[in-house]
Amino acid sequence: MAITQLEVAGYRSVRSLVLPVGPLTVIVGPNGSGKTNLYRSLFLLSAAAEGRLAQVLAEEGGVPSVLWAGSREKKPVRMTVGVTLDDLAYELSIGPVPPAGGKDEFSSSLFNLDPEVKEEHLWSIEGKRRAVLMERKNRTAFLRDSEGNRTSFPVQLWEGESVMSQLAEPHRFPRLSELQRTLRMWRFYHHFRTDPEAPQRSPQVGVRTPVLAHDGRDLAAALQTIIEIGDEKGLERAVSDAFPGSRVEVQAPQGRFSLFLHQPGLLRPLAARELSDGTLRYLCLLAALLSPRPPAFLALNEPETSLHPDLLAPLGRLIVDASLHSQIWVTTHAEPLARVIAERSGVEPVRLTKELGATVVEGNEAPEE
């Protein structure tokens, strides 16, 4: 299922924003305009499907740190993220744990940075008509089962996580299970390790790796997997496009995979530990975008980090080519990268700006208070 629309409200700098999403979406804007907040909102949905919502929010500082900090109407403090996916629409609404002294049994807990899922909704879409498939309020949820009957969720829900991660009977609730599988298969890349101790700089025990790890730790195995069962010629072209005359080689004595880069004029290949941060990061991007198992949705956050400007054009071409097989989302500071993507794909970037502290699409008016 492809994303056709993203809706975010009350999340960091995003007071209220609705954004159409196409096969290739490029988000640009100055520092602090909210690019990463949109990327993170999508990441939160995937985390919710995996049962990691509380952990991911904790890594951002907890619910109090992620809520919209500007002025608001007098109503419950919440953040909401929703997506439309072909014939399904899903919405997740989160708020802080009630303060001590409330009626909730957890109100005096020390885990006061945890999220509390206030509401969740899942709809099926047919034309302009929406039919409710799931409706949750706090610990109770009602769903449509496989026969179309309205039934209550079989267990009391934990308020810190989504219904999806607590799904016990996927055969009874196939559309909810389908949504969970879809969101869990999304891929996000925002931090490739390139420091001297990064795992990909040293020999690693490897297995066939059609999907690169989020931090690139299994880079050598992932590249060798592309060579053996993926688009080997495409990899060769992409490496040569970025580093003319160069080629990658993977060696695996005793099953420990090591990466080497052959370059013109050098009498020996450079080992991964000798590569610059930018070169190593670019090879990680190659492995992610040339995956032999393309995902339905792949998001890159600031892929230009550490890259030499000469690498932005090859990266743009690679991203556009990958969008033929996966829905691609890119947030970037690099105007040259956005320009290459636009020229090759015909897709103009979405430009963000700030108005009264709120993230808005350039040219659109800020939402009313």
UniProtKB/TrEMBL annotation:
Signal sequence segment: none
Report the superkingdom from the record. Answer: Bacteria
Q: Show where the ATPase AAA-type core domain sits.
A: 24-333
The name of this protein is: AAA family ATPase
Q: Which organism is it from?
A: Archangium minus
> Lineage in the entry?
Bacteria, Pseudomonadati, Myxococcota, Myxococcia, Myxococcales
